[in-house]
Request: fold
Amino acid sequence: MEALRSPFHHYCHVIHLFQKGTAAEQTSQSYKEPRQSEFRNLRFYLNKVPLDPDGVYVEEILTQWRGDYEKLENNHTYIQWLFPLREQGLNFYAQELTQEEIKEFQGSREARRRFLQAYALMLDFFGIKLLDKSGSVSRGPNWQDRFQHLNESQHNYLRITRILKSLGELGFEAFKMPLVRLLLEEALVAGTLPNMRHSALEYFVYTLRDRAQRRTLLRFAQRHYVPPEDFVWGPPRLRGVCVGGRQRPVKEEPAWSPSSARAEVAKEQGTSLKRRGQEPSAGGDRKPSSSTRPLRGAGEWLQCADTVAL
Reply:
């Protein structure tokens, strides 16, 4: 009888050990020690880890790179670390932001302080001065040389787009409006950044999350756009003239739609949007071809902007 029970008892013992091991494994899976790679953007801004692949700490950038315009222009790895996003950029060593990391970042006074220093550093590189903690900006003392460079170095427009988006992610949404307004003024009114006007309208404006602010900037642009009949920016559904709160469709196709622009912003590609009959340069000004006619009554969409989500 004992011999018959031994195999059975052995089998039960094995099953018990298996179940015990499975429960322990499940417990270990439900609790994970934080990985060293987590919150890497925050730890970079706390000066605890360097950026990859250069091995440079944030304090070195903030204290030694300011005014070194050649380094800031030619190095293409630091921008993803200084201005992180919740999407993969061109530097695959950089880590994407997470909601948890954003919350921790916004709660760190040290990280926020360094982030504003990084923002001021890049503004100086562009020829702009950060005036106060509310985000007000103006031309910097070096604006003439830097604006000339910025007008010609159009890959920096992608950097500006990233900076604007990162401001919003890390709790500085209010800083976007003053910067975009200044860039629109320089591009459309002062004429110091003529190559930037379409990038400002197609990308920079649409990084703002507040619809009223976007409308304000587009109204400003409409007043100063030359020639005025070529101003065709507006919501993709407004493909006709807004009359009495309703849209009257027209045959002419608008030259641009914000939905496609926002898709390009998300991808952060340097390639331009293609339009009928023309091939624009990346991030620069665009000249319509003879086959592209402006949208009839293009500016009138602003009268119905309150009824359409920009």
